Amino acid sequence: MSIYHLVLCGIFLPGIQSTVTVETGFKNYTKYEHGDMNIIITAPHGGFKRPSTQDNLANWPDRADGCKDSFGKCVWTHDCGTTSTDCDARTVNDLYTRAIAQDIADKIKDITGFRPHVVYNMLSRRKLDANREINEATFNVPDAITAYQDYTNFINQARSAVSGPGFLLDVHGQTHTPARTELGYAIPGSRLDSGSYTISRSSIRSLGQYWCGNDNVCFKDFVQGNRSLGHFMNEEGLDAVPSTQDPSPNGESYFSGGYTVREYGSRVGGDIDAIQMEFDRAFRLGLRNDEDTQEKVARAILSFRELNYA
């Protein structure tokens, strides 16, 4: 059974002093900062903890490629046999994203007086990929499984704490060209290019159905138009796709949204939507060190919330 620790932390912001309830999971491998508004921020790839033989965990090797079974399905264990590059386990961390998630939450608090819920994976992606299903995420290492369960339990706690509609932002990093923030709604880039996507298959299904019913043309405003998060990032002078200025990837590399937005957004039901935010490397560095950039991102998020979730 997982062990949790509750602590109260003083968070100091310009002109504001507040207390945030912080809950940590098994061996501090995960963390949940309780919020008081209808925004949840998650950071699955920003941790750096790498348990080793010093922790009496010599049986926790790094995640690597999996194997294929006789049906061509990937098997994710360290002793599955001959590995396959078709079962590639990505292990590179998304630099600065853990700190960025916290910075954005703090800046939203600074602006509004309310703070989002924030959930962090503190483990290196070599040990746990919290944005995958449990087998690929953990390679069936017992401590990794426990940490994964803690992480998903924290997300579910945050979702349950939100009263009424809200949204989750899953924070990531990427190195694609051109450099821009990629916003993922569980809609493939090719579908954005062609405009042939539907409300029911997106991770903001609840938002779309509330305003548009089953009108997929109406829904485009919330993904590519002037009610989209990308639009409000453009309004702050920030590049994003999809948005009014850059409505689709146009055949370029693009992350449409991974396990978290698909599993914990409204695509599968409920009224908590989810959007994956993929920041390019240079923007992440600026976002980490520049409070003005942090404020622009926070204002874009809040403008999106005010118009669509009021």
Distance between the termini: 39 Å
Major β-sheet profile:
9 strands, mixed
| Whole-number mean pLDDT | 93
How much strand? 15-25%
Number of helices: 10
Give the SSE order as H and E letters. EEEEEEHEHHEEHHHHEHEHH
Could you characterize what this model shows?
By secondary structure, this protein is α/β, with parallel strands linked by helices. It has ten helices and eleven strands. It has helices spanning 97-112, 134-138, 142-161, 189-194, 205-212, 216-223, 229-235, 259-264, 281-289, 291-309; strands spanning 5-13, 16-24, 30-33, 39-43, 67-68, 74-75, 117-121, 166-174, 181-184, 240-241, 272-280. The strands form two sheets. The protein has a nine-stranded mixed sheet with strand order 1-2-3-7-4-8-11-9-10, with helices on both faces. Strand 2 (16-24) and strand 3 form a beta hairpin. Helix 1 crosses helix 10 (291-309), helix 7 packs across helix 10 (291-309) and helix 9 (281-289) packs across helix 10 (291-309). Mean pLDDT is 93; it is low at 10-17.
Which key terms come to mind for this protein?
310 residues; two-stranded antiparallel sheet; globular; 9-stranded mixed β-sheet; alpha/beta; 10 helices
